[in-house]
Amino acid sequence: MAARQLLIGIDVGGTFTDVLCYEAESRTLLPAKVPSIPGGQWRGVLDALDALGIDKGDITAFVHGTTIATNALLERKGAKTGLVTTEGFRDVIEIGRTRRLVGGLFDIKFQRAQPIAERDARVEVPERTLADGSVERDVAGHDFTDIVARFRALGVESVAICFLNAYVNDATERAAAAALAQLMPETPITTSAAIVRERGEYERFSTATLNAYLTPVMRGYLDTLAGELAQSGVAAPVNIMGSNGGAMTLERAAGFVAGTFLSGPVGGVNGALRIAELAGIEDCITFDMGGTSTDVALVAGRQPRISHTNQVDAYPLQVPQLDIHTIGAGGGSILWVQSDGTLEVGPRSAGALPGPACYGRGGTDATISDANLLLGRLPTNRALSGGLMLDHPAAERAFQAPLAALSDAGADPVHLADGAIRIAVAKMAGAVREVSVHRGFDPRDFTLLGFGGAGPMHVMLVADELAMARAIVPRYPGHLSALGQLLADHRHDFVRAWGGRLGDLAVADLAAHLAEMRAEGEVLLAAEGIAADAMRHQASVDMRYAGQSFTLAVPWDEADTEWGPLRAAFDARHGETFGYADGGSEVEIVNLRLISLGLVERIELAFRAEAAGDPVRERRPVWFDDGFVDCPVLDRDRLTAGAAFDGPAIVEEAGGTTVVPPGWRVTVHASGALDCRRMPGDDTC
Amino acid sequence: MRDLVRLELIRESLIAVVNEMRANVIHSSYSSVLYEGHDFSCALMTADGRQIAQSLDDHPIHIFAVPYSTVEVARAFEGDIHPGDIFLHNDPYTGGTHLNDILMLFPVFHAGRPAIFTAVRCHWGDVGGMTPGSLSGRVNEIIQEGIRITPTRICHKGVMNEAFLGLMFNNMRTKAERMGDFNTMLGTTRKAAEHLERLFDRFGGDALLAGIEELITRSEAQMRAHIAALPDGEHFAEGYIESTGPTPEPLYARLKLIIDGDEITADFTGSSPQTAGPTNIGPSMAINSLGTIVKSFLDPTTPINHGSFAPLTVVAPEGSFTNARYPAPCGAMAEVKHLLDALVAGALGEAVPEMKIGDHKGGANHTYISGPEPTGEGIYLLYEWPAGGTGGTEGVDGNHAMRFYTEGDFSSLHAAEVVESRFPLRIERSELREGSCGDGRFRGGLGMRREVRLLGETAVLSVVSEKNVIPPYGTDGGGNGAGNRFTVVRDGAVLEPSPVPGKISGFKLQPGDVVREESSGGGGFGDPLERATDRVARDLRLGYLDAVQAEARYGVVVDAAGEIDPARTEARRAELRAARVHLTLAAANEDEFAGPKRTCRLPTALARRLGVAGGQMIELRVAHGPGVRGWVEIDEAADGERLPLGPAGMAMLKAAPGDQIEVRAVARSPVVGGEA
Question: What is the architecture, at CATH level 2, of domain B581-665?
Answer without folding.
Answer: Beta Barrel (2.40)
